[in-house]
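Thread: Modeling a multi-component assembly for a lab meeting

Hi all, long-time lurker, first post. My supervisor asked me to bring a structural picture of a complex we are working on to next week's group meeting, and I have zero experience with this. I have the sequence lines for every component (438 residues in total). Could someone generate the structure of the whole assembly? Inputs are pasted exactly as I received them:
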Amino acid sequence: MSVRTRFAPSPTGNVHIGNLRTAIYNWLFSRHEGGEFLLRIEDSDRARSTPEAVQTVMDALEWLGLDYDGEALYQSTQLERHMEVAEELLRRGAAYKEDKGGTGRGEAVVFRMPGKDVGFVDAVKGRIEKKAENLKDFVIVRSDGSPVFHLGNVADDITMGITHVIRGDDHVENTFKHVAMYEALGIAPPVFAHLPMIVNAQGRPYSKRDGAAYVGEFQAQGFLPEALFNSLALLGWSPGDDREVMSREELVAAFELGRVRSSPSQMDMTKLLWMNGEHLKRRGLEENVAGFRQAMERAGRLPAGTDPEYFKAVVACMGERVKLYGDLGEQAGFFFDEGYAYDEKSVQKRLMKPGAMEVLREELAALEGLEVFSAESTESALRALAERRGGGMGELVHPLRVAVSGRAVGPGLFEMLEVLGRGRVGARVRRTLERFGG
RNA sequence: GCCCCCAUCGUCUAGAGGCCUAGGACGCCAGGUUCUCAUCCUGGUAACACCGGUUCGAAUCCGGUUGGGGGUGCCA
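Re: Modeling a multi-component assembly
Sure thing. I ran the full set together rather than chain by chain. Output:
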């Protein structure tokens, strides 16, 4: 039988990374097996399930490239089907009606636990069993006629022909109930695989206060989907060899449920950032240019009418100094802003030194006389100047860097000069001389 | 309380009885390259929770302890 997995989120408006990781494992497993990956929207809680919330889920899946087969199934449309299953259970004597707890609210449908031990082989945890005396009957249809989670979940999985249920660890208790329901129905249960939780530094469930907890936040910070995908895939699973930076295809090829770890793991933002840098290198310049541009525009740091070639040159020049699309503005904003700020410490160290202004003036003179204004020509001009003055290159490089960029760190000076161009460099040095020259 | 699950460097992990004086990655530290930072290269730091048992031999198997998590709804 061909594999069918599903991702069954309740649309609550946010997609937590734990759920996202569950979606990734379902997707990875079904793609690896050449099976299907389905989407079910568990919107039975009508109050919280808005169209916007559903869209948020869809957007997250699309961003990560988690394509699902067929149409999404909305649980709210399956009411009749749920009732059929409840009827069937009643018919088989596996359920009964009762005012459980004597609430006076009328009769609910209660599932009867089989009176024997229930167990199953979890694909990641191995065999799990529970004694009959620890299994209690439970409500599957409320006295108001609405189905309870367990009923809907099992009925829908049957309807959808799900062969492997890959879900969070918090569902293992439910699984005893679900397995019992399958057995009562005379249907072979699917394979269950329970994924350990993603926890914070305190070992508690990863939440908002532990850093970015929802997909949208990673997206907003400029993380690459393939980097988040890769990191999450490796959180609880590994290919068994030493590979870490992997493409979607490599992950699909290597993924096995049996290699999923059964202990909880902690998200490491530092490693995610590194991973992002690795995937950035793997993307082409053009793609990165587009990504950086989008982030810059969103941050309002890219003036309208910026020459595309200039922008591209800046990105190429920044090279691997930036690990996140969202960080370009902070690190290279001066390229696009003539009103760039001067870093106070750098000014003190490089421009307020005795003779610094004189050096800048000499550099300006040397650069302005150049026929061609390139990295090579500016470098040889300054080397010649250094020779004449008898000092080191550092004495020339540092003040000039601060003068044209306002900061002490950045790309190679000569590369930077070429990208900025003669006009900007001249104007910036002059402005610096006026401002700090006394 | 009861039930279920989990336990290797700070973090992510490899390890399915000898290949382990425990390997890789991130981070961190040191050195190299260099005009700064980043990259890159080299080296280093750091772990089998504890106690028993099985075995010629245990990170690996078994039991217990401790610690952590999950569940215990006419929530999902």
